[in-house]
């Protein structure tokens, strides 16, 4: 068998504190060397992803430290192609012997795999050539002591609110990721980004009168963009207290208002249904729907992958294809699918630069604030929490457990729990009557509140 050993000077994996430029250079050297050796071993094409991630996460409960977690994870994955036969292997160890074994395993897999006409690198013409700074790197020099104090401050602010009886804890997290992707087209891409988070979960009430739990959280690329810790704790407390005295409902058909954090899941179901894997397997209720009206004409959903400080921003996708701003839904009409190169070839289409998923997909907000959304609803259910996985992407049937608030004449009347909301996603998309202006930008799927004209709500009876 061909000697696939690696020179140790290239892959020396020191444990010193992370230096972004030096670490990216090191990962890049590994990627270039492995691709060259894969070609030398007979591969017609190859691609490599290598990463180093570091992080600190601290959890406190009732003022006491529960966990302190330091992470430093390495990842290396290699895919080789022998014609249209593909082999992939990965390791979490960047030592020379581990990478040599990974290369050997990938080549062995490819030699014994059936040929697949859709297999191969993304088209060379689609590779990214410009790499603007997206302002994603904001290290937070957070000591364990400071993280503990911040989490305690967050939790304490919530516990000080009258009626809060207990806590499930508060957490503070800070992490960074350095990643390199390279392939035998000659593409070489480097990314470095940070992500910081804060969360708090509280409990109100007692066993006799009923207990309720709720939480709040925030996440940002830069520490200064996070919500103030004390304000976040108070927000978690307010949400928890508002759920006391929750009732169930009798079965009915009514309007349903999804808050931004629950509306995000609807956008996720849309993405799942228009993603290449579901489509070429013919396992989607939105098969062959490009050019069709799925939403009312006032709905626009656009992907902005190069949004500065965006939670999912990137200049290239997982295959090196250049990302670009592009609509998914325009004036209610489905304009494209969500495709990487493999699914695109299976469908006879081109990659949409979505290998690895969508990046900052935004349902454009409307003009109404939340009070105006309640007024537009009149009477109905506000959904603040969803439970269960009752969504069928093949048929579009939708049924999930929910909690929230019943609204009468545009005013919240009382909290609601233990209900199930049901419909079909196609009807739900088409039935969006109003869109709020309260865009939730904390994740790669960004939505405001959404008012749906009619759903079945099943409760106690």
TrEMBL record:
Belongs to the peptidase U62 family. Residues 46-110 form the Metalloprotease TldD/E N-terminal domain. Residues 138-244 form the Metalloprotease TldD/E central domain. Residues 251-459 form the Metalloprotease TldD/E C-terminal domain. Coiled coil: none annotated. One of its GO terms (biological process) is proteolysis. GO terms for cellular component: cytosol. It comes from Metallibacterium scheffleri. InterPro entries: Metalloprtase-TldD/E_C (IPR045569), Metalloprtase-TldD/E_cen_dom (IPR045570), Metalloprtase-TldD/E_N (IPR002510), PmbA (IPR047657), TldD/PmbA_N (IPR035068), TldD/PmbA_sf (IPR036059). This is Metalloprotease PmbA.
């Amino acid at each position: 068998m061909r000697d696939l050993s690696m020179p140790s000077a290239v892959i020396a994996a020191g444990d010193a504190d992370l230096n972004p430029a030096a670490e990216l250079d090191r990962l890049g050297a590994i990627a270039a060397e492995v691709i060259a050796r894969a070609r030398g071993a007979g591969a017609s094409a190859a691609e490599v992803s290598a990463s180093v991630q570091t992080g600190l996460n601290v959890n406190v409960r009732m003022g006491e430290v529960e966990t302190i977690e330091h992470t430093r994870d390495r990842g290396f994955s290699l895919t080789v192609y022998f014609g249209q036969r593909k082999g992939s292997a990965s390791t979490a160890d960047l030592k020379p012997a581990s990478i040599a074994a990974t290369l050997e395993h990938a080549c062995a897999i490819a030699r014994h795999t059936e040929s697949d006409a859709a297999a191969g690198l993304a088209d060379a013409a689609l590779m990214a050539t410009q790499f603007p700074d997206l302002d994603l790197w904001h290290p937070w020099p957070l000591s364990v002591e400071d993280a503990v104090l911040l989490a305690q401050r967050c939790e304490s602010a919530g516990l000080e609110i009258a009626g809060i009886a207990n806590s499930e804890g508060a957490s503070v997290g800070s992490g960074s990721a350095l990643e390199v992707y390279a392939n035998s087209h000659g593409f070489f891409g480097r990314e470095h980004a940070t992500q910081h988070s804060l969360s708090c979960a509280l409990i109100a009430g007692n066993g006799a009168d009923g207990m309720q739990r709720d939480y709040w959280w925030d996440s940002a690329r830069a520490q200064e963009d996070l919500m103030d810790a004390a304000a976040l704790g108070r927000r978690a407390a307010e949400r928890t207290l508002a759920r006391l005295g929750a009732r169930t409902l009798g079965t009915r058909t009514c309007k349903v208002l999804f808050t931004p954090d629950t509306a995000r899941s609807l956008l996720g179901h849309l993405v799942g249904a228009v993603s290449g894997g579901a489509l070429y397997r013919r396992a989607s209720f939105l098969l062959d729907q490009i050019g069709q009206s799925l939403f009312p004409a006032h709905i626009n959903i656009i992907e902005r992958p190069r949004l500065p400080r965006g939670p999912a921003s990137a200049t290239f996708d997982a295959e090196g294809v250049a990302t670009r701003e592009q609509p998914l839904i325009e004036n209610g009409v489905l304009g494209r699918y969500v495709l990487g190169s493999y699914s695109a070839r299976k469908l006879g289409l081109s990659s949409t630069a979505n290998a690895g998923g969508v990046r900052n997909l935004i349902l454009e907000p409307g003009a109404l604030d939340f009070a105006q959304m309640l007024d537009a609803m009149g009477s109905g259910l506000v959904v603040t929490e969803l439970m269960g996985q009752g969504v069928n992407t093949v048929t579009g049937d939708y049924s999930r457990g929910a909690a929230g608030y019943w609204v009468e004449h545009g005013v919240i009347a009382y909290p609601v729990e233990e209900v199930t909301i049901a419909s079909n996603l196609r009807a739900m998309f088409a039935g969006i009557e109003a869109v709020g202006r309260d865009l939730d930008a904390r994740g790669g799927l960004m939505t405001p509140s959404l008012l749906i004209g009619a759903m079945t709500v099943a409760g106690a009876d």
